[in-house]
Write a structure and sequence with these properties.
Membrane-bound Lytic Murein Transglycosylase D, Chain A, 4 helices, Elongation Factor Tu (Ef-tu), domain 3, alpha+beta, about 240 residues, four-stranded antiparallel beta sheet
Length: about 240
């Protein structure tokens, strides 16, 4: 059976590089959740129509954005031996600590809590259309429900809420907006040059210095075909 698996990630820059720090030993659920609640919302702003009057029944709503979705799930942890698992004889306390290390504990070298990917049967629980993206822990509580005579926890439930988070490059791919004042992601083709691409997107070849800086390019004279470049909005 494929169990819900959580990988912890460190991400540098705005999605420029990512590394799973527990790839060889991710957190795995002993039992898959009975239910998962995914909440997605859309924000709108009321139209400021000069012709509007107080007699309007319903004001026009203009698209404002898509806030981060939230996902809530419950995980059962068992140390009685009643539930066989890949973790072997790992205690409930150790499983709770593993969850915290993956999702919650502060990463001193990164100065923040981890990014995570939640996978079930190889599929990400956070997807927009066909684009998988990261999440971060928002809150969790641990409810211990059974103890040994020595006071060690033998059973617990983790109720956790995660927030989706998406880097600029992934957002640009999904939105694919055609405007120089918005972020673009371009895959370099054979024969492309950075000044030529800047001319196409911005109408200004001289923007290549800024694009090279944003993408940490050591040289703009040759860029390997297949490279993805972020073209930031004109400010």
């Amino acid at each position: 059976m494929n169990y819900l698996t959580i990988f912890g990630y460190d991400i540098d820059g705005d999605g420029q590089s990512e590394r799973a720090f527990n790839e060889d030993a991710p957190f795995k659920a002993q039992l898959n959740p009975n239910s998962i609640k995914l909440t997605q919302t859309v924000s709108y702003t009321a139209s400021n129509n000069d012709d509007a009057t107080n007699s309007q029944i319903i004001t026009q709503q203009k698209f404002g954005g898509v806030p981060a979705p939230t996902l809530t799930l419950e995980l059962l942890l068992d140390g009685t031996g009643a539930i066989p698992s890949e973790g072997g004889d790992m205690s409930v306390s150790d499983r709770v600590k593993k969850f915290q290390e993956t999702c919650f504990f502060y990463r001193g070298d990164k100065h923040e809590t981890p990014y995570v990917k939640l996978l079930w049967n190889g599929n990400s629980l956070f997807k927009y259309n066909d684009h998988a993206y990261f999440a971060r822990i928002k809150s969790f509580d641990v409810n211990y429900t059974l103890f040994s005579p020595e006071g060690d926890p033998l059973r617990a439930k983790i109720n956790a809420t995660f927030l989706g988070t998406m880097d600029t490059k992934t957002q640009a791919k999904i939105m694919d907006k055609q405007s120089p004042d918005l972020t673009h992601v371009v895959t370099v083709k054979a024969g492309d040059t950075l000044p030529m691409l800047c001319e196409k997107i911005y109408g200004a070849r001289q923007m290549f210095h800024e694009v090279a800086r944003v993408n940490n390019l050591l040289s703009f004279r040759y860029i390997k075909p297949g490279t993805e470049l972020v073209f930031p909005p004109i400010k």
